[in-house]
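From the pipeline queue, job 12 of 40. The input is one protein chain; the requested action is below.

Action: predict structure.
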Amino acid sequence: AEEYQSTGDLLGIWGYGNTNEANNLELGDDVSSEGGSHSLKMNYKSYSSVSYALPTTIDASVSTTMKPKGVVVDLKGDGKATVYINLYLLINGSVMLVRKAIAKTALATSWTRYAIGFDKFSDAGTSANASITAQNITSVYQITFGIVNADYSASTIYMDNLRFDNSITRTTDTAVAIA
């Protein structure tokens, strides 16, 4: 979020929500302790999933250079919503949607760093864990955050410092409070 100068810049890249006016995305000033002065402020009010999407292009060279083993992201929850981190991947020539759910009971209401190894993502079409390796990912073409809140009240989830990481293990699944 540090590269964006305004909500307009942000909306030029990210997509969001649905027709409910309470579902929107803006540049936030509530940030985790690392980085600069901006975060993504994902506002919502919905019984169904509200999706905030980042179209992206990460090509096959990631498998030979970085060799990521998972995703690291800083999140600040609201105690109401479950967040789904979705990766749309091209794996061995086939499109696959994989996801990791962070239940509302596990989504901290203060800034927390979530490190999630690829083995912890499940195939969204089945309940099985997906076979994601740096070698079989042809490209990552979209990352989305789905937010589901059962009580229909308006609220906000904050996200900062999203990145692929090669310093964690494929089985990492941690949440560490950020001081």
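Job complete. The chain is about 5% helix and 50% strand.
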